[in-house]
Amino acid sequence: MNALAQDPVRSVVQSVDWTAIAPPALAALGALAVLVADLFLPERRKPLLGPVTVAVLALAALSLLPLRSGERTTFCLTTDPAVCSYVADPFALAVQFLVLGAALIAALLSMTAVRDEALPRGEYWFLLLASAAGAALLPAARDLATLIVALEVASLPSFALVGLRRADGRSSEAALKFFLSSVTATAVSLMGVSFVYAVTGSLHLDRIAERLRETAPGLEALAATGVALTLVGFAFKTAAVPFHSWVPETYVGAPLPVAAYLSVIGKAVGFSGLILVTVEAFPSYGHVWGPALAVLAALTMTAGNAAALRQRPERPHSAVRLLAWSSVGQAGYLLVPIAAAAYAAEPGRAVGATVAYALMYAAVNLGAFAVAAHVGRSAAANRITDYRGLYAAHPPAALALAFFLLCLAGLPPGIIGLFAKVAVLSTAVDAGLGWLAAVMAVNVVIALYYYLAWTAQIFRAPAQAPAARARVRVAAPLTAAIALTGLLAVGLSGAPQLALRFAADVLL
Questions:
Q1: 140 and 253 belong to one structural domain
Q2: Residue pair 301/240 in contact by the 8 Å Cβ criterion
Q3: At which of 256, 281, 306 does a domain end?
Q4: Which of 53, 101, 107, 312 minimizes the number of CB atoms within 10 Å of its CB?
Q5: What is the model's pLDDT at position 10?
């Protein structure tokens, strides 16, 4: 037995902590199971794939419960067990909870859309689960190779999901634009990773952090360039300026549940990747990425809100396009605490503010998309004017949408939106970024206009009798999605300290 223990071949064999990797592994296995089942199930049985997908995502989310007891690691170096590629710590668990919960809500929205739009069931559910698996893997990754692989596993199925409406030219065009933009951003990131590896000789984040502190004078320019370029792929996923041009066309061209999925999961993937590479791998180069992200945050929120202002109710503008530009503006707010982490004495507090804001945004934005999915069943164009008189036809859905919009605006009774914005602003002020806090404050005021204008449409008297809209009942999966997101938003508004306290425990 001692000889076997000392055998060098035997020593490179690693044990895998299956409990730690359960969340992304269950989603990946579910994707494979759905794909295989689609080959053998008769057509009349294929609607069962939707509930199976929801069950898989719920099971993957429940698998997070055993991981709350403490940090768990796996896929570690045999020569240095402290250096690992997968770490299930509080930050990873918080983001995995957000990702899997949001994917579950998106799956509920999809059950009606897949049926109404005759989307290929097997392909749709497989792609959704595969993308969710990659998104759940990314926040636990602790080396650049795994981060990039997880980013692409989350992204590649998304391109296909956007283009699944094969008879719609807008869907194909949106998928192509999304694909080309993403591939370009990823290529730039890979170049940055290669520069960082050339300087440090490692891909593990903690080793990179150690070696960048002692960069040779002749390699400082190469290291700084690598740091900047590595951020590009993750900034693309957050829809930060100038990597945001794909957002409106993609959201409008994609099936609406896919747009909802991208608006939340894409940002979760982007901001978690940015946090890991900046706070974990590049803390000594905060003078490079801190100012860059601060400028990106200011430009992103301003560009998003300025474009959203143009989507006016008196014009035939799409509500989904308004949500798309709104998501760009919200991405700017999410970037503020990450930029502040470069200057803060406690970067973990800034990271917590980003997580808290992301939790709020995920709940209310998915809720808004759920109501939009219902309205879209009777008004295919889904224009802002189609929401006029919604309260007269469907009071519960109208009240829910109004509450979601007020949360996004940060107005009472959407208290959680206000608290989340204050938490983000405080990180900028504490880090000495007063100018960024001022830009955010101005943008919050600007955003009030289009959120309140849309809310006013909901309660205006309908231009014509609402009988046609009343005949289209809220489908059961949409009702479940609206109820879940509504209860979460109301609960967090009643006790906003729960989200803030939960996020405060997320320290890197």
A1: yes
A2: no
A3: 281
A4: 312
A5: 44
Residues of the chain with pLDDT under 70: 1-14, 313-317, 463-472, 502-508
Beta carbons of 415 and 408 less than 8 angstroms apart: no
Q: Is residue 104 part of a domain?
A: yes
Claim to verify: residue 232 and residue 362 sit in the same structural domain: no
- Could you tell me which residues come within 8 angstroms of residue 145 by beta carbon, excluding any fewer than 6 positions away? 85, 193, 203
What sign does the dihedral 40-99-402-331 (CA atoms) show? negative
Nearest to 335 by CA among 484, 231, 262: 231
pLDDT score at 467: 46
* pLDDT tens per residue across span 161-220: 998 887 777 788 888 888 888 888 888 899 999 999 999 988 999 999 999 888 888 888
pLDDT for position 22: 93
Q: Are residues 318 and 254 in the same domain?
A: no
Stated length of the chain: 508
Same domain, 187 and 226: yes
Judged by DSSP in three states, 85 sits in: strand
Beta-carbon contacts of 502 under 8 Å, excluding residues fewer than 6 positions away, are 94, 355, 356, 359
pLDDT at 257: 92
Residue 28 identity (one-letter amino acid): A
- 296 and 273 in a common domain: no
DSSP structure string for 289-325: HHHHHHHHHHHHHHHHHHHHHT--TTTT-BHHHHHHH
- Does 409 lie in the same domain as 276? no
What is the domain range of residue 292?
Answer: 286-508
- pLDDT given for residue 381 in this prediction: 79
Strands 84-88 and 72-76 come out as antiparallel
Instruction: State the pLDDT at residue 13.
Output: 53
Q: Which two tokens stand for residue 436?
A: 């960024």
Q: DSSP secondary structure string, 164-200?
A: --TT-HHHHHHHHHHHHHHHHHHHHHHHHHHHHHHHH
